[in-house]
Amino acid sequence: MKKVFFFSAIVLVFSTFAMGQNQNNTIQSGSENAATIQQLGKNNTTNQVQSGDKNTASVSQLNAQENLANINQSGDRNAASIAQTNGAAKNQVAVTQTGDLNEATLVQNQAAANTVHVLQTGDRNTAKLKEQGAGVRFNQTNIEQRGDRNLGTVSQSGNVNHNLINVSQLGDENTAKVGQSGAIQQNTINIGQTGDLNAAYVNQNVQAEKNAINLTQSGDHNTTRIDQEKTRETTTNVNQSGDWNQTKVAQSNVAYTETNVAQSGDKNSASVQQTDLTHSSAGIFQEGDANTATIKQINSTQATAVIVQPGDKNKATAVQEGAKQASTVIKQTGDLNTAQTWQTGFNNQSNILQSGNKNTATVKQTGM
Predict the structure, then answer these.
(1) Cβ of 42: how many Cβ atoms within 10 Å?
(2) In whole angstroms, what is the distance from residue 70 CA to residue 14 CA?
(3) pLDDT digit string (tens) for 12-31?
(4) Cα–Cα separations (whole angstroms), residue 36 to 25, 57, 263, 332
(5) Residues 210, 187 contacting (CB under 8 angstroms)
(6) Are 241 and 265 in contact (CB under 8 A)?
(7) Checking phi first, is residue 141 left (phi over 0); if not, alpha (psi -120 to 50) or beta?
(8) pLDDT (average), residues 216-228
(9) Above 60 in pLDDT, residue 2?
(10) I need a labelling partner for 62 at 20 to 30 A (CA). Which of 97, 173, 221, 298 fits?
């Protein structure tokens, strides 16, 4: 299932590094602004422009070299803090605050050659980033907050390099949190929240390489949690355009696998658990309301499981354990139906269609 993710471009122009020692450029044309700069290192550059009123800006470049920090505050009562310390080198950070009462806190400790853009045009938003350790290198993070009262956080520690993270919050009161810890390399994470009061949590731990995660929440009051551990070249797409939906995807020791969840109805629950899995796919599509869908794929290869629920208040569970070349399709167009499939062994296929109401179907296939 092809997904196209749109992320608004943040256009920022970086100044040229000063040669030799440190350089600071501070311009204050507004009223009652405060700017604090600490530079103890070599070839660091700080540019601060405060044209709004009652803003606070702080930059600390301590035991650091060849870092660039840009802060531009044209709104009022904003707070921006950038810390590049303890061997941080060749990082580029830019914070632009045109809204009011926003907060941006960015910490790069020992990290090197990372790029961070934060744009806050809405009001009362909070953006936080922490890059901890000498192994955090060559990452790019973009946080865009055009709505109000949103929270966006990114945390990276360990051997984390060459990752791309985009967080776009155009709605109000949304939460997006991304955590990467361990040997995390060449992953792409896109989170887009245009609805209100949504929550998105993405965690990559231990080992994750060349994975793609696309998470879009255009409805309201939705929650998605994606956890990856020891994953390689997987694609996970979650689209929540309805309201009050919940999605959970948990992947451990998974490779070359695609997972898709789409919830256009309301109050649905989708769960995908994948463990010791290769060359497989899972899909949950909930157009109706108050449905529950669960897919478990364990110790399997070339397994496919699809659950489609256009009806209401249906329950479907598909389990593939120790399966190879297995296929399961469950479609519930009626209401209050229950379907369960369990497959192990080779070359099993199961198709269930429930167009009536209050039906029950149970399938068990062991194969060879």
Answers:
(1) 17
(2) 8
(3) 333 333 345 899 999 999 99
(4) 12, 6, 47, 61
(5) yes
(6) no
(7) beta
(8) 98
(9) no
(10) 97
